[in-house]
TrEMBL record:
Protein family membership: Belongs to the bacterial ribosomal protein bS21 family.
GO BP terms in the entry: translation
Keywords of this entry: Ribonucleoprotein, Ribosomal protein
GO CC term (a single one): ribonucleoprotein complex
GO molecular function: structural constituent of ribosome
Protein name (Swiss-Prot/TrEMBL): Uncharacterized protein
Length: 143
């Protein structure tokens, strides 16, 4: 059985003669020969692959969402969207490893080293104080 699920307008749109977007925003469509499959064109997928295959030459990417559970269908669509953004993920990784981010990361590491050095100095001072206190106690007992 096919269930409708609410899809954002930027994520996908229904295609085909029997497909349509209801006023409520639910994505509904009939698949081939009443199978309950939903052909969906992934708009972001087309945009991501425009360099390789332009939208005017492309027939679109089709994904079949055929789950009884609304949430399962939504997760399936999200998985396809995530996999279609490989180039975006690569660019995000490159940006993360870029110079500005590396400087920010190194500054955080430097600040953390300062904090650890300060804590180590406090620990050394406390141990020295404890040692002097134990010596003073021993000297007092000896008197």
């Amino acid at each position: 059985m096919f269930r409708c699920f609410r899809a954002p307008s930027w994520a996908c749109r229904a295609v085909g003669a029997s497909a349509g977007m209801h006023a409520s925003g639910d994505l509904t469509a009939r698949g081939a020969a009443g199978t309950g499959a939903v052909p969906v064109v992934l708009v972001r997928h087309l945009q991501a692959h425009r360099m390789m295959m332009p939208q005017d030459r492309s027939a679109g990417r089709t994904i079949v969402v055929n789950h009884r559970s609304v949430s399962r269908a939504w997760w399936e669509l999200r998985t396809v969207l995530d996999e279609s953004n490989v180039r975006d993920q690569f660019m995000r990784q490159q940006r993360f490893e870029s110079r500005g981010d590396r400087r920010r990361r190194e500054r955080r590491e430097w600040e953390w080293r300062l904090v650890r050095r300060h804590i180590a100095e406090q620990i050394r001072a406390a141990e020295a104080y404890n040692e002097r206190y134990q010596v003073a106690l021993q000297n007092y007992v000896d008197i």
